[in-house]
Amino acid sequence: MDLKKLEKFLLHARAQTYAGDSKKSDSLVPGSVQYDFNDGDFSYRDIYFIGNGIFPGLETVYFKNKPVWSMSYFGDFSKMTEEQVDKMLRRALQDLRDKTRIYNQVDKDYGEFKYACYGSGSINELEGSEEIHVGKNRVFYFYYAGGFIA
Predict the structure, then answer these.
(1) pLDDT in tens, 9-68
(2) Which of 35, 68, 69, 136 has CB atoms 3.0–4.6 Å from 17's, for a disulfide?
(3) Which residues of 90-120 are buried (b: 16+ CB within 10 A; e: fewer)?
């Protein structure tokens, strides 16, 4: 498996799904939200649940219909509205698409909001967290961990 191609596909798929405000897929899991993206032999699926500002989920990348990479996550936006977090987060995920939710560290200001992502590792095995602050108050957090599985 060419891990550079895997990473490139993953970052592109994320930008085309939630971050790109694309249409949600029909969900395979009752009560969940699902996004799917396909390009050649690669496919991507993001499934998460949402309620009371809490959202656990799982991203999976498949190569020739075999799962090859996966990342689980958990977040809380209960101090923001869903509309606020979607607007702010989608913008950050698009602007910083090659650096967020992988193994890089990044900070960026968006008016009253400050976005930060603290990742470590490599595409093989990574972990990190993401936060949005308004002033000194953390109003959003997101934890993630994942890696290459095939």
Answers:
(1) 999 999 999 988 788 999 999 999 999 999 999 999 999 999 999 999 999 999 999 999
(2) 35
(3) eebbeebbebbbbbeebeeeeeebbbbbebe
